[in-house]
Amino acid sequence: MDFEKLFLYKQWSDRRLFQAIDQIDQVKYLEDYQFAQQQFNHMIIVEELFRSRLENKKALHTQTNTDVLPALDELQQRIECSHVWFIGFVKQIKSNQLAEIIHFQFIDKKTGSLSIEEILFHIINHGTYHRGNIAHALHHAQVTHPADTYTVFIHQREPERRAG
Fold first, then answer.
1. Rounded distance between C-alpha atoms, residue 65 and residue 113, angstroms
2. Given CA atoms 114, 116, 118, 120 in this order, what sign does their dihedral have?
3. Which sites bind a divalent metal cation (predicted)?
4. Which tens digits make up the pLDDT trace of 108-141?
């Protein structure tokens, strides 16, 4: 699995979604805007939790959301920092390290273990799930959802693969 390409895809998708969220009329569709904020807030908290597990550091969070939502620009900055970190991480990791098991404690205090590869897949999959939720809010707020499928990403990045 080419995790570098997958994290570049996630970065591309998230950036496009932040641009779309900026188009929501916050007077008319405040609930949809706040829902998008909440989804990205949850996404970054989960990414930061798993990053701390991969770094064998103390978790920064005690829950997977917050009572007060950070501003969208703060969330965008944190997500972008996460992109940079994960892209750097997957660039340097050796394929034989992907099977290494990480033991950790979930937010609910139960223990768990995942391989590094499973953690990386979870981050990619988790982001996709929540971007889909945000797409629904965009639709409700009458904002066009940007095409963000992996195939669109690949063909934008490698247009020669679309020939035919």
1. 22
2. positive
3. 42, 126, 130
4. 989 999 999 999 999 999 999 999 999 999 999 9
126 assigned ligand-binding residue: yes
Q: Binding site annotation covers 122?
A: no
Average pLDDT rounded to a whole number, residues 133-152: 93
CA dist 8 and 14 (Å) reads 10
- Domains in the chain (CATH in brackets) are 3-162 (1.20.120.450)
Ligand-binding annotation for 130, yes or no, is yes
Helix axes 116-140, 3-21, angle to 10 degrees: 20
**How many other CB atoms are there within 10 angstroms of residue 154's CB atom?**
14
Pairing mode, strands 111-115 and 101-105 = antiparallel
Q: What's the CA gap between 52 and 58, in Å, rounded? A: 6
- Measured distance CA(19)–CA(34) in Å, rounded: 15
The average confidence (pLDDT) of the chain is 94
